[in-house]
């Protein structure tokens, strides 16, 4: 049996990607594995190094990029982010569905690789709701919030490009968005569950 297809979750900052993927990881233990990205941004309250991200300096990140350690990398809102080959291999070697949480540049760069994931865009119902979610999350300064909103406008425009995503989910009601996401991933989830039984 070939391994399950990875899943790329993208969409504007604050749309609800982490909330949805954390639910998947909680509800489907032993089915999904999160690819822990590298970033140069500072950890938020409660974030753990090696679990949420590998928090690194710009120098370390640049060295990794120069060494060819990343399948994709991008600058987002003044910080560097990237998915390492080893993060993907770690998950795939356990025959789990690899979930990647990347911005739109990451999506475009992953399309140049042979990863062959299912591309899912999580979109907010409106810019106003997105802004409220980001403000209520209390993770941003006014300056970084404005940068994220600007990136969100670009993301929302680019995501309309035909063929870029396999599915676009509007995350208005969280439970409904989660049900839709599970439907989209049903075939891959079943594949992993069956392989665990045999
Ligand atoms: N459907 C929803 N209704 C109301 N609030 C939501 C919904 N989905 C997510 N949220 C809240 O919105 C905020 C942003 O969600 P989350 O952190 O999951 O977004 P994200 O897309 O992962 O953002 P980032 O890309 O910055 O990591 C969180 O505080 C989360 O609890
Ligand atoms: N291209 C990549 N984008 C990534 C990666 N990891 C996260 N992200 C995206 O960055 C923004 C901001 O994330 P935050 O945790 O600072 O809020 C968000 O859109 C993520 O999807 C990555 O490895 N590569």
TrEMBL record:
It catalyses: GMP + ATP = GDP + ADP. Residues 4-186 form the Guanylate kinase-like domain. Pfam families: Guanylate_kin. CDD domains: GMPK. It is found in: Cytoplasm, Cytosol; Photoreceptor inner segment. Its EC number is 2.7.4.8. Keywords: ATP-binding, Cytoplasm, Kinase, Nucleotide-binding, Transferase. One of its GO terms (cellular component) is cytosol. Gene3D superfamilies: P-loop containing nucleotide triphosphate hydrolases. Monomer. Interacts with RD3. This is Guanylate kinase.
